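Sequence, please.
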């Protein structure tokens, strides 16, 4: 039963992780890219290199934050319920 309760909680945690990852990427891009926004893939005036580097960094940050948030949520769930929510 506890694992069924984890599903909606995991969805909320995942959304919050995505928002956090987006905020982290924006701040890092501003600090290191010296621009307010990362280039869009369809931006005509941007090079392949700019677009692909931006996408790679964004993907790495998203993956890192998502894994950290998901892992933290699972550990917190286990502490509260005594049950690990994932596959064992």
């Amino acid at each position: 039963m506890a694992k069924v309760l984890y599903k909606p909680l995991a969805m909320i945690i995942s959304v919050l992780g995505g928002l956090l990852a987006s905020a982290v990427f924006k701040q890092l891009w501003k600090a290191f890219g010296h621009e307010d926004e990362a280039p869009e893939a369809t931006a005509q005036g941007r090079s392949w290199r700019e677009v692909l580097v931006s996408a790679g960094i964004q993907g790495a940050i998203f993956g890192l934050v998502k894994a950290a948030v998901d892992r933290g949520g699972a550990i917190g769930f286990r502490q509260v319920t005594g049950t690990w929510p994932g596959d064992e």
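The CA atoms of residues 64 and 79 lie 23 Å apart.
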